[in-house]
Amino acid sequence: MGGVFLPSIDGIKQQTFSMDFILPRVERFLSEELPRIVSASEVPWHYNHRCKTCKFVEDCRKDAKGTIAMIPYLSVDDASDLKQAVPKEGEVDIEDLVNYVNNIQIDSNVSNVKKVKQIIRYNEDRKQSPYLESKTENAQYIGIPTATFPQETDHNLIIAMFLDPFVSRPFGWAICLYTNDGKIMKEFQHADSNLKSEKNETLSSFISLMNSFVTHLEEAFKYLCQEGSRACIFVYEEKEKTLIQDSLLELITLDPDKISKDIQPIQHKAMQCFLNLFDDCSLLLAIKNDDNENSEIPDGLREFPRLIVLEHSLSENIAINVPGFYQITDVWEQMVKPTLKNDQELNSLDPSNIDLESIYATWDSMNKERINKNLLFRTEFVNVAIQAYYSLLKKFTDNIASILIFSPQKFKFSEVQKFNHHYLGKLYFFTQFEAVTSSSQKRADRLKDFVQGEAICGILLEFDEFVEENHNETIAQFIVCDETSHKLETNNFTNFILTEDSAEGTREAICFSDMKYKKKFSGCPLPVLALIKVVDNSESIAIHLKGEFQKKRSKLQKNAKFRLYKRYLDFNTDKILGMLINIDKQKNSLSLEILKDPNAWSTSLPEKLPEKLKTIALNKCDSFTPSQKKISEALLEKRLQIIWGPPGSGKTHFLALFVTWYLTEVIPLLREKKANTIIGITANTNTTIDNLLERISVVQKRMNKTDDFLLVRMTTRSTRPSNSNDITYCTPQELNFKDAYKHTVVGGTIWDWHKIYDKQKIDIMIIDEGSQLLVANACVALECLNQTHGKLIIAGDHMQLGPIIQNTSHPAFSDDHPLIFGSTQQCLMRKVGDPSFNEDDFFLKKGQNHDYGPCTLQLKENWRMNCELNSFFQEIYGDDYISKNRNLEWDFKDDDLSHRKSCYQADIVSWKSNDFSKVK
Fold first, then answer.
1. What fold, for 155-407?
2. Backbone dihedral region of 769: left (phi > 0), alpha (psi from -120 to 50 degrees) or beta?
3. Concatenated DSSP letters for 198-233?
4. pLDDT tens per residue across span 667-725
5. DSSP characters over 547-604
6. How far apart are alpha carbons 193 and 169 in whole angstroms?
7. Is the pLDDT of residue 732 over 70?
8. Of the N and C termini of the chain, which has fewer Cβ atoms inside 10 Å?
9. Residue 136's CB: how many other CB atoms inside 10 A?
10. Are 772 and 823 in contact, with CB atoms under 8 Å apart?
């Protein structure tokens, strides 16, 4: 075992981990890599922005001159690629790179040449790289198209904040509002600070400083909102953004009961500022972990960032002849000073007055007026740097829109949705953020093609002909020009947008708002199309696209080139958001009760099956294995049962056995029960639902119980197959559980159940593959249960692949916080007393028995594997996970396995001698 101490919300926490998987790497490092490093004549090193905080940064900066670190912000991977591309023994310097670029055929499409051109920002039109030109003392604009810097603004709000590293809190801040031409608005110029001698570390000084900050920031926001200004907010460095974020979060999450109720108005202002500055996962930390007060969640997230880190924009599009990264003095000397016309600004904006480290170093010797003045100098520096950025851009091109793609929307305060229950508020934000992240990924592909100047992520097409035309929709045939690079899957969903194969066409695709049109089939600024057919000829591949082509009709000429991009299509996010709001409004929400304390809810049956009847029922499941029988017994006594089914344990078969046994053997014992029992089935995929229904049908026939209960599958009218003798197909609206003439098992997706969750209630809901279903989606299934006696069964394996999550950067909560952003199964697995499991608890330590709380039981029989294969899974699932087919053998008639026969037979001999160490 290994261990490390890590900071957490509750202080320093020890994290342990198994060394088994890392030991080979440690051994290789000690035996191979370390001797190679020690014996090397030269030590490889690379100077870039990671070196910023090192105390030797200035010494290394001198040594880095002339190396490939003269390409600022060059990553280690890109540096390695450049060294491999340039044919030279020993270290490659910047002169070697210049010679390489001058001597190669720069129009070549060889992969390593293309890679070099990307790294050095080679401009195809100008046939040069801004990093490799003859040395110049002035900055140059690179010209990389970007979606993170505004094309034009009405106002720029600039914030500066200074950190006291000893207490991890600010000691000063400045806010200043400028017009888009750089003129200062004096009524919105403010600064405040604490003296070092005033005990900056006290909580009261922090609250006082942040009170003045949020008060003036809110005033600026109100002005921008009243003016309808297309404004952006700027900070210079990433660490300033982080400091503002952390400081607001600390203020918001203070407990008024422990400090003073007077802090609540300040906290409200801080929350408003936080919501209008940030739109990332940090918002989850601003939601308190109790239901004593409302949680405010942004209702809709911005597609264009409101807060911009200027240093990121400079590193992306400004070339300055210095190694590693840009210091403030570099930006001042080579970018800002050449563009300044004002002598007063030239004299006042000395780098020593605006650099964070320099100001902190002289903090103790300055009075408050001097500190505030330097803070305001920093906002002035950011303002002139922004003006210099636009000045260099205008020299580079007259077509600014070809580089800066977006303009900010008119400023307005973020709309919020208030939640009484913080779990629901967090799920609301999580669901929104997943959608925005998915949408952003689609846009990132288009932006990548725009930067590269070719269709890499999009599909390059050539228009051929119209195949079919009618009033509503048209089918057109296109020839695929790069058929080897994309997987073409057909369906009737309008998953694609079509645009011309040009820079302007790609820009239109980038500006296409996926979130705004995520449910639209028509009325979009670009054609939204479905790929309905692939025609694979001997010479080429053609595809049929169906949809409305009016927007590009005049461009659809024979052999005209187009690009096809995937778009974000989403009919379900709004359903989940609306349902979460409805749940929050309920006085007694079943799903919220289950989320809060599943163990307590599990024991809340109004009446239990008498022991005598339970014994009779259990005597009729003799064909069950011991673990299956144990789980069945638990299901008679509880409302919640999580069935943990490792690979090969027969989860689906057991669920089919249980459903048949419960409806035909248990329910008849309950003579007072007059209404028919309804069991619901859902899962993350249609395939899983269909498999379970088919398995129930097989068991039902085998046990001669086909007349005892119905099997129903919810579907749509357009996709409904003809009814079979086994399963009835119908739409959700056609169901009426009250009039059911016999017990019924109903299968449907979460979205099928969403159509009836507020109208129809069921007795048991089975969630198959619950380890793959998100908690927010599962709330639909929970709301379908009968409030007084409904039961929930979740089957799955939390040790296998979980649900697909688009954004994995969610903040860490305290250890007792449920895993609500993961799978339903993990979320509802709680310890006795209801403490939540964290992800580390799911890994079995050596000699430890699995115990995942009173509501979780494991299927302990492996039906698919012999003892040899099962021995591996016992390492994960425990020694009591036994093979039921001990003598299963591989089918060596398969040519792909024949070469393994001798090895396998040797392993059999080793296993039979009980010497497992010999098994390879």
1. Nucleotidyltransferase; domain 5 (3.30.420)
2. left
3. G-TTSHHHHHHHHHHHHHHHHHHHHHHHHHT--EEE
4. 888 766 668 899 999 999 999 999 999 999 999 999 999 888 999 999 987 666 766 66
5. E--GGGGGG--TT-EEEEEE----SSHHHHHHHHHHHHH-SS-HHHHHHH-HHHHHT-
6. 12
7. yes
8. C
9. 12
10. yes
**Residue 50, phi then psi, degrees to nearest 5:** -65, -20
Backbone angles phi, psi at 517, to 5 degrees: -110, 25
**Encoded tokens for 254:** 């203070």
Instruction: Determine the Cα–Cα distance for residues 485 and 189; give it in Å rounded to an integer.
Output: 54
pLDDT band at 915 (very low <50, low <70, confident <90, very high): very low
Cβ atoms < 10 Å from Cβ of 55: 6
CB-neighbour burial class of residue 730 (10 A; exposed 0-12, middle 13-18, buried 19+):
middle
Q: What's the length of the chain? A: 920
DSSP tag of 823 = B
Answer whether 79's CB lies under 8 Å from 131's CB. no
Span 801-830, pLDDT tens digits: 888 888 877 777 777 788 899 899 999 999
User: Is residue 478 very low, low, confident or very high in pLDDT (cuts 50, 70, 90)?
Assistant: very high
Of 237, 192, 231, 186, the C-alpha closest to 211 is 192
CA dist., res. 181 & res. 198, Å (int): 39
3-state secondary structure (DSSP) of residue 842: helix
Q: Which of 70, 78, 144 is nearest to 112 (CA)?
A: 78
> By C-alpha distance, which of 857, 781, 866, 791 is closest to 824?
781
SS3 label, residue 174: strand
The token pair at 728 is 């009835």
Give the DSSP per-residue string, 431-460.
HHHHHHHHHHHHHHHHHHHHHHTS-SSSEE
Q: Quick one: which of 730, 692, 701 has its CA closest to 713? A: 730
Give the residue extent of every domain in the chain.
155-407, 431-571, 588-862, 889-920
What's at 546, amino acid-wise?
Answer: K
Q: Where are the beta strands (DSSP E) in 33-97?
A: none
* Residue 9 binned pLDDT confidence (cut-offs 50, 70, 90): low
* DSSP codes of every residue in 352-389: HHH-HHHHHHTGGGS-HHHHHHHHHHHHHHHHHHHHHH
pLDDT score at 896: 59
Q: Pick left, alpha or beta for residue 502 (phi over 0 → left; psi -120 to 50 → alpha; otherwise beta).
A: beta
Backbone angles phi, psi at 258, to 5 degrees: -95, -15
- Chain centroid to Cα 786, Å, comes to 34
Q: How far apart are CA 614 and CA 612, in angstroms?
A: 5
User: Does the 588-862 domain belong in CATH 3.10.20.70?
Assistant: no
Across the beta sheet with 169-179, what order do the strands follow?
184-193, 169-179, 155-164, 231-235, 307-309
Q: Is the pLDDT of residue 871 over 50?
A: yes
Question: What is the phi-psi region of residue 510: left when phi exceeds 0, alpha when psi lies from -120 to 50, beta otherwise?
Answer: alpha
d(CA 99, CA 251) in angstroms, rounded, equals 56
Q: Which fold has domain 431-571?
A: Elongation Factor Tu (Ef-tu); domain 3 (2.40.30)
The residues, any chain, with a CB within 8 Å of residue 732's CB and separated by 6 or more, are: 714, 748, 752, 753, 755, 756
Residue type, 340: L
Beta bridge partners of 7: 12
Instruction: Give the Cα separation of 410 and 408 in Å (integer).
Output: 7
Residues contacting residue 589 through CB under 8 Å, at least 6 positions apart? 583, 783
Q: What one-letter code names the amino acid at 503?
A: A
Closest listed residue to residue 635, CA positions, set 664, 655, 612: 655
pLDDT in tens, 98-140: 888 777 765 555 777 788 888 888 877 777 888 887 566 789 9
